[in-house]
Amino acid sequence: MPAVIEVRNLRKRYDDKIAVDDVSLTVQEGEIFGILGPNGAGKTTTVECIAGLRTPDRGEITVCGLDPRRDRAGLTRRLGVQLQAGCLPDRLQVAEALELYSSFYPAPADWRALMDDLGLAAKAKTAYAKLSGGQKQRLSIALALVGDPRVAILDELTTGLDPQARRDTWALIEGVRSRGVTIVLVTHFMEEAERLCDRLALIDAGRVVAVDTPAGLTERARIEQRIRFRPSRPLDDHLLTSLPDVSGVTRRGEFVIVDGNDNALNAVTTVLARNRIVAERLRVEQASLEDAFVELTGRHLDAVGPDAK
Ligand SMILES: Nc1ncnc2c1ncn2[C@@H]1O[C@H](COP(=O)(O)OP(=O)(O)OP(=O)(O)O)[C@@H](O)[C@H]1O
């Protein structure tokens, strides 16, 4: 598959703050490529440089073979951007916004069809200020697609949405991809990244810590199995920590969480049975992207700010 976006050794500093420090990544045609990291990791700065909205201090970027800073006109025809906090004038109506934006492009998509596809037809004459959060979000996606781009950058597109609206938006993004648009998705929601992305760059403190498929990344978490249960009687953690198949035991309320290898479930249930303890509400979970992130960075994804632990 040909590369649609190439970023090599990107660096961007704001005054004395290095926001992006040596980021390299390649996005292939037709994929949904995620950029996942905690708040302040440098995700938005990276995509703003890709979109030609910021000038890197160092590094090279090409989008569809173009330099985003030098070939602005060419880039506009190929790249659609939905950035965070996209805001329109309060009184502008949905259809007016789409028609206006489509007039900026030499070969735009059919904005009426886009309005239908995004479930906004019934809101065509509604002013921006009167739209719900989910509708505003859908409009911002429609505006990113109205130029009929080959590549779309979507930044934090489900932030602030309720779980149902978030799932609806995911379905919509899959629909956009199936029309052949390459998508770069910036997010700090693990579930979103896991569900939607073909490949992901994990970013932390301005650096790429890993690029892989969601499954490939979770394999990097040393935990192969996580067992969660409520012991029917008081349980001495040492019974479990002394097992060679177990790498860690933590408590969450009345639940015990055991991390270990493939044989951990077997070992834990045997010890519990020997001690006449029943594992109530027993669940076995696989490692998540969150676990991989913690393994790779020592930090949790939902940590606020690059210095948070
Ligand atoms: N215009 C700016 N001036 C100064 N510092 C900035 C500016 N924009 C971002 N930063 C800082 O650069 C770092 C990276 O910010 P960026 O917005 O790229 O991160 P992010 O991963 O997108 O975070 P979030 O998810 O919170 O948007 C942060 O420490 C941020 O405070």
Automatic annotation (TrEMBL):
Keyword Repeat: no
Pfam families: ABC_tran
GO MF term list: ATP binding; ATP hydrolysis activity
Residue runs in coiled coils: none
GO biological process: response to antibiotic
Keywords: Antibiotic resistance, ATP-binding, Cell membrane, Membrane, Nucleotide-binding, Translocase, Transport
Any one of the GO CC terms: plasma membrane
Compartments where found: Cell membrane
Family matches, as SMART domains: AAA
Topology in the lipid bilayer: Peripheral membrane protein
Record-annotated ABC transporter domain positions: 5-230
Endpoints of the signal sequence: none
PROSITE patterns given in the database record: ABC_TRANSPORTER_1, ABC_TRANSPORTER_2
Gene3D superfamilies: P-loop containing nucleotide triphosphate hydrolases
Alphabetized PANTHER family for the sequence: ABC TRANSPORTER ATP-BINDING PROTEIN
Listed name of the protein: ABC-2 type transport system ATP-binding protein
